[in-house]
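In this section we turn from sequence analysis to structure. A common task in structural bioinformatics is to predict how a protein folds when a small molecule is present, because the ligand can shape the pocket around it. The inputs are simple: the amino acid sequence and a SMILES string for the ligand, here pyridoxal-5'-phosphate. Study the lines below before reading on.
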Amino acid sequence: MTDKAPEADKDSAAHYRFDTLKVRGAYDPAAHNYAFNVPIYQTTSYEMGSTERGERLFRQEELGFLYTRVGNPTIDVLERRVAALDGGAGAIALASGMAAVSHAILNLADSGDHIVASPYLYGGTFDLFKSILPRYGITVSLAPSLEPEAIQRLIQPNTKALFIESIANPKGYVADIRSLATLAHANDIVLIVDNTFATPYLIQPIKHGADIVVYSATKGLSGHGTVIAGLIVESGTFDYGNGKYPQFTDKGFTLRDRSDNYRSFLEVFPETPFTVRVRLALLNYLGAALGPFDAYLVLLGLETLSERIEKQQANVRRLIDYLQGNEFVSWVEYSSLPTSSNYELAQLYAPRGTGSIFSFGFAGTLEQQERFIDATRLFSYQVNVGDAKSLIVNNAKTTHSELTPAELDAAGLTTDVIRLSVGLEDSEDLIEDLDQAFAAVFGRRPGHVAQTGSNTDSKPVESPQPESEPEVSRV
Ligand SMILES: *Cc1c(COP(=O)(O)O)cnc(C)c1O
């Protein structure tokens, strides 16, 4: 919320391109004592000034700051900047990506409601859907695949949302956002897209029909492994007055006007009903507020988003060249590879590339796999992704350890999967690190037909796919 959206902001969102917006969007130094960088407003609350202004603030006649749990000027710049980068009407920042996921769902579904979700989900989201939401009366159906027909079959009269990830963890499945948006809208329900892995630099889901976009800003968006943060962005185009979402149309005392007429969220905030309701009805009372310093760290990271991703993707291509011919590697999965079953969707939705994360199959025993991970020196063994430093993890045993063997299978997550989140180091050092780790396990450097230095995209290499590869729909 802001009381001072300077006119220049509206112009900037309309006229400037992505890389300009990521460093300057939604910020006018003149409105902040000419501070050139976004100041950290480390304050709990704000002077109302006069009882007259206090009245206006509480009646929503003036959108100003009252208390940092529900709004803060540093956080406000982050929210409006990310909304601009995503082509959204509004955004709200929260204390974590999980807060963004849970608040987006809770803003749509009450006890007795139902949501449908992709089978390819972040481990924490999977656990929330499987173990936590049902205890509060919200049931979740996990689709067997992202095929529209499979999803349509699961939609019920009480279904309130379809939840997917644009590029899903850890195998990089790319969702056919347009087809799924069409399906959701034909059923009068909201499409929520977790765009964490893609970031708005690679995919802008709202442009493809998504209604709500959620982020863990902890990952590539901030990009340095320094902060836990989340965001929800709304398109501003979904009709919450379609009869399915009374929480937006019910008139309430809280939003009364000067004549004490009760009003609804949709009436008072027609352009951004979703994010305003998250703020006033959920964040206000559930309390997962981001801190101003953390918002500042995300803003700082955002400034180099495009440059980081381009360099990381270049490193990914070098590493894939190394791994593809490697005798100790059974498959490499990166959706931008022409050999990937996701290639067409990747080209359609993420023509610049599918990001800094990819996975490969370790051709050895589980014991050898663990020794391999322990032998890496540069790749850090961590569950995080999107850091400026390279990370390695065995997902089946860590990030997705709550999944049963059958659930792992459905998610295409075999136990040989090793996920790399590639950072900004020199690619030669990264390759050397993997090479010495293979040697530590197998007693010799791997034999391979090295293609180091080439661009994998222009040199398709045979990449055997695992048997359990689920089908994804094609455009
Ligand atoms: C990490 C992650 C989350 C959760 O974010 P936190 O900031 O760790 O709470 C949600 N979705 C995806 C895809 C993630 O990678």
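The chain has two domains: 6-302, 305-442. As an exercise, try to locate the residues that line the pyridoxal-5'-phosphate site and compare them with your own expectations.
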